[in-house]
Amino acid sequence: MRWRNGGGPPRVTRSTVRSRHRGGFATAKPPRQRGAQRASPLTPLSPGTDRRIHYLISKGGSEALLQALANAARAEPPAADFGLKVQRLEATDVILSLARKNLGHHLNLTHCLWVLRVCASSVTAGTALGINGAMELLFKVITPYSKRHVRTVRAAIEALAALLKSKSNSRRAVNIGYLRGLLRLYQDWHHNDVSNNYVHIRRGLLICLKHITNIQLGRETFLDSCGMEILFTSVQDCLSCKNLDPIVTTVTQILRKCYPKEPLPLPTVRSSYSFSLPGNVRTEPPCMLLEDDYESDGEEEVEKDLDNDDDETKEEDDDLETDVNKLRSRPVLDRPEEALKQYEAVCPELSHNFQSEEEKSSEDNTENLPSTPSYFIQSATSVKHQNIQRTQSVTVMGPDPGEEDLKVPLQSWTKKEKCRQAVQDADSLEEEDVARSHVLTLCPLPKEIAWYKKMFNTECEASINRSPGGRLKTSDMVRNLLKKHQGNMPFHSPCFYIARAECVKSIPDYKFLAFPDFWGHQPPPYGKPMLERKYGVQRDKVLDDVRRLIQPGDVIGRTVFDLDEPSLGAPDCLTFFSKFESGNLRKAIQVREFEYDLIMNADVNSNQHHQWFYFEVRDMKLAVPYRFNIINCEKFNSQFNYGMQLVMYSVKEALQGRPHWLRVGYDISYYKNHYRSCAAAAGGMRRKSYYTLAFSITFPHEDDVCYLAYHYPYTYSTMMSHLDILEQNRNPKKVYWRQQTLCQTLGGNPCPLLTITAMPESKKRDDLEQFYNRPYVFLMARVHPGESNASWVMKGTLEFLVSSDPIADLLRKCFIFKIVPMLNPDGVVNGNHRCSLSGHDLNRQWLTPSSQLHPTIYHTKGLLYYLRSIGRTPLVFCDYHGHSQKKNVFLYGCSIKETLWQAGCMVDTAVITEDVGYRTLPKILDKVAPPFVMNSCSFLVEKSRESTARVVAWQEMGILRSYTMESTYCGCNHGLYKVSKSLALPRTKGLQLGTQELEEMGSKFCLGLLILHLKSLPCSKKVMAQAALLLDLEEEITDLRAHRSVIGVFRGFSCRSSWWGCILGLDSQK
Ligand SMILES: [Zn+2]
């Protein structure tokens, strides 16, 4: 509909309004009094005087009134409901006619326009003004371009911007052709305002455009009118001048909004990997992406996004469980009672017969495993405080097999056979004859042979003959590498890794090993501070993206890697690869010479959950900054905007003795892009926006092989080979260790269950009794495969638990640890971020896990049920996770009272009694673990979390201390790691966590458990004495609990590190 020639829109005249609302004036509310002086200009509008005003106005207008209104309108801030009041008083039309009459009188006109602007801040008033021709009037004032009466022009533009907030006004403005007019006018101002004196006018015009392009019709017309080109070109002149930031920001917002929406460049968003589920469970059909799904729906580009970070970030109070009966109920068993009997087998510690211990201990050594790294599990240094002096008597212990320097050739290693056997057993169990005894090869190493020879054979450096193709055979390479690489990586063995990796079952049936997982990672000597965000980095990236559309000259747009088309290869570009354990990269598109768009693969049997990436890149040039854009991120925000970097591993660096995953990348930015999913892909909901993670990297070497990942990778094979090393290197006289298979996963990988405690002191009845009656602690990790940080924390826990550290020794005497170190092996193997092969989030299945679809959850829960049924409910339950939106490390627990209080419910404390013991462990960790922050902990029970491990273990098993431990992917803004240790950058924001800090967190968690035990459980004098001895506090041990005021008096104890002070001090804080 166009009104331009039809005499304008239907007019609502003053007389019609008045006749409709006769007598309505008296009911209008008086304007809010805003102080004695301020009240006077508005007084004429108070009830009772309105008729007089109308009379005055009808007689030609009153200067005084206009002045009063103008003053009121200019008052900052104007009363929020001013416009509404004016409309109620039916004065909008009056003001409009005043403006019309004053078109020649610029001072009066300006005053009218100010009033108009404020009136238009009410959308209803603005809409009425629009209907009555306000925009036509304003357009007459602002066009054509002229520098005369700038004040009036500015007032008109601002009033127009206010009017265009109304969608119907915007629609009308587009129909009349004002969008093109505004663009032309903006260009005129831009070209003529060389000294930047009229920035407010230019910005005002941009705000008009910004409001108009909120509607679909506006965006379409903007594109048809070359709006993208006009704004993109003009903004180039503004980038270097900081005063013009308001202009650049607004232009960037408009360009982003109007960039034509597209589906991801994929045939389907569904994962490239699919898995047919057992039974009759059907997976959803793939969702095809059709071009015409786009730009059809959604009138408005809403900037609101769903927070789909399910990692317990939800803080809305309405999600809290407020049903007291539900909170206090104890659900019935989800399976027949008889089914629990089977878990007796995975509690061998309860029936262990130590009388035949000689036999057992010899069995421990019969496997004659090689000790490639030959690393004796030392006292976990991370727990030791430098001021703590240990007495010799505590640290001295018998010879340990780990100390012998075992160097057995690879071929004699029998574990590999054992592992193969296990795989075959698993196969026959499933009646599925899959002969998967494949041999894995290492991804080819850097091409440059000269360099390789230099590394390993210095004398023949001068006489190098290139073999045809320039590559060495991988097997020779590996053999030579291993010869060179003799056990200097703590807790890692390449041979163990290969052996384990060969047994892994994956959907893509991996043929290659990623070098970092095979070779190992050593934490670098220094932690890296969080990245300082460069000014304007995001807008630079966005403008660069828009440039693809405006200046497509240098756009290549060539797919160079595609998981669905493995044969793809292209010259003169980077080479990508991701088909290895935990690998995730689906597609790479070379956008420009040194810029690549990357697409992550969805979780198996799913069309979402993109966050984790891990891929190989090679054939890079030296000293060239490469830009990468990961274009299908889903979360609305990311720590990448707050100092987090991704990690990189360089093969050349590793071979030169620096095998590190390092935090890398600069110009990092995370922002919403123009890709949208179709409604079907978003689960039938509104179509979903995607986000880009953009970063730049300059690689350290030419023709290197580098690996990039979201976070420090930790594969299933890494875990399995780590367990092999731990088992082999523990002291069997002291450490009771059993590794069993809890169950097979859907994908046919064993899910290990560990039991760790101390061997009984002797075979005397009392000691055996003590052994059998130790309370349980239940730990698990990595239910979410993308949360590799959880595995590093678990690694720290495990290494500490089996270590010879006297604190660990004491801790083992206090507890029996049941540990499931990786609850979702299939997800980890196949590079998922969140789900298992069933496409389900396993941490939402705890209420009613299916034995078929969620076996690891089903059996872990079964084991917990079993322990409860025999009266051995664990004292502490903790599930290790990673958190992508927050910094530091913290716990989520469960409390009825805190939940009800938070929800604002009345709590009858007489009826609800609750042990506050759930707060003790986090309080201890706040003192002993540097990255841990008590203030970030929460003990609320949310409805949306009712099926998580934490809530189910608390509610169904009755475990008071049931927790989720969340570790940041980023770093710390609190505590010891708030300040970077690096001397080069003394004043930085804080440290990004490295694997060392994550592992330390795992060991400090153990220390926290010991202190919890000393505080909360009846301890024998012997244990207390030992604990005191460890800290060289023999004198103070007597009457320990009575001396609470002595905290901090002990020499050499800082508040944070003093675990002993912690024991003493926490009681008083309770
Ligand atoms: Zn998680």
UniProtKB/TrEMBL annotation:
Family to which this protein belongs: Belongs to the peptidase M14 family.
GO CC aspect terms: cytosol
Protein name: tubulin-glutamate carboxypeptidase
Positions of the catalytic residues: E966
Region annotation Disordered: where it falls in the sequence: 1-48, 294-327, 354-373
Record's compositionally biased regions (Acidic residues): 294-322
Organism encoding this protein: Apteryx owenii
Record's catalysed reaction(s): C-terminal L-alpha-aminoacyl-L-glutamyl-L-glutamyl-[tubulin] + H2O = C-terminal L-alpha-aminoacyl-L-glutamyl-[tubulin] + L-glutamate; (L-glutamyl)(n+1)-gamma-L-glutamyl-L-glutamyl-[protein] + H2O = (L-glutamyl)(n)-gamma-L-glutamyl-L-glutamyl-[protein] + L-glutamate
GO molecular function list: metallocarboxypeptidase activity; zinc ion binding
Keywords from the UniProt entry: Carboxypeptidase, Cytoplasm, Hydrolase, Metal-binding, Metalloprotease, Protease, Zinc
Compartments where located: Cytoplasm, Cytosol
Cofactor dependence: Zn(2+)
Gene Ontology biological-process annotations: proteolysis
Alphabetized CDD domains for the sequence: M14_Nna1
Peptidase M14 domain span: 712-1013
Known EC number: 3.4.17.24
One Pfam family in the UniProt entry: TPR_CCP1_N
InterPro entries hit by this protein: ARM-like, ARM-type_fold, CBPC1/4, Cytosolic_carboxypeptidase, Pepdidase_M14_N, Peptidase_M14
Keyword Zinc: yes
